[in-house]
Amino acid sequence: AELLQAYYIFHHSSQHTLSAEPKRSSPHSSNYHSLTPTAMSTNRSPSRSGCHASVKSTSTPTSESSLVIHSHPAPMLTLRIAGLGHHFELALESTCTLLDLKKEIQRKIDLAPEYQRLVAKHKTMDDDTMVLGGTIYNVDQSHAVQSIGIGLQDRAKILLLHSAQYTVDKTGVDALTALSKQIAEVDARRVSRDIGNQEVHELITQLCCKIDGVETNGSEALRRMRRSTIRKAEGVAKKSDESRRGIDP
């Protein structure tokens, strides 16, 4: 009887101890990811800069060959751009590409990506598909490189120069740049009501004829710039029409 009583007490106390232990994650559970120490995961989502924000993974070792992943947003990089008479800063996600950076520069100074040559760390950056930060690896078992990184650090200085294509297209680029400034002047006069809707249309028509007369000499980059300048002119005429309808429906 004493032996049976002792066994009963031991059995129930063991069950209580086991049930009190916290539940551990299993490598087979859906919340557990096993990677090599060099692997990172990325989930892309649109950002305000036009490129993609990436959710990278930081990893905490659980053994010699596996890591537990905790997602966090990709870090932002503040880049200092200088050159061609310009000095400004741009903030982009580290997973944005070099092309994304060039597009942001275009928004700032109206210089097409094809006409930009960017230099950092005394090295010309000429592969538009490379990401600005570190290299990104696939999450699968191959751990293959998903995107090669330039490796720029926060507050990195980037020298802005003209590309070789700009030298070839310089005459056309200068002509379209001058016409773009004239379009901006017409728009400013429209906003201040120095000129009416009819005069806006007359000036825009004249400018569009001049834009159409700029020779591209087979340059696709210059052709795109010419189309963009035409759209800018048409946008001013459209805003003038909308303003007129608002004042005198």
Question: What does this entry look like structurally?
Answer:
- With 249 residues, the protein is of the alpha+beta class.
- It is 41% helix and 22% strand.
- The protein is built from 5 helices and 10 strands, in the order H-E-E-E-E-E-H-E-E-E-E-E-H-H-H.
- Strands 5-4-10-6-7 form a 5-stranded mixed sheet. The protein has a 3-stranded antiparallel sheet with strand order 1-2-3, with no helix packed on it.
- Helix 3 packs antiparallel against helix 4, helix 3 (164-191) packs parallel to helix 5 (220-247) and helix 4 packs antiparallel against helix 5 (220-247).
- The N and C termini lie far apart (104 Å).
SSE inventory with pairings:
Layout: H1 2-20, E1 43-46, E2 52-61, E3 67-73, E4 76-83, E5 86-93, H2 98-109, E6 116-120, E7 123-125, E8 136-137, E9 145-147, E10 157-162, H3 164-191, H4 197-212, H5 220-247
Parallel strand pairs: 4-10
Antiparallel strand pairs: 1-2, 2-3, 4-5, 6-7, 6-10, 8-9
Helix pairs in contact: 3-4, 3-5, 4-5
Based on DSSP secondary structure assignment, what is the total number of beta strands?
10
Q: The biggest beta sheet, please?
A: 5 strands, mixed
Q: Write down the secondary-structure element order.
A: HEEEEEHEEEEEHHH
Number of helical stretches of at least 4 residues: 5
Helix content: 40-55%
Rounded mean pLDDT score: 79
Radius of gyration: 30 Å
User: Beta fraction of the residues?
Assistant: 15-25%
User: Reading side by side through the largest sheet, how are the strands ordered?
Assistant: 5-4-10-6-7
Shape assignment? elongated
Distance separating the two termini: 104 Å
Structural class: alpha+beta
Low-confidence stretches: 14-50, 52-71
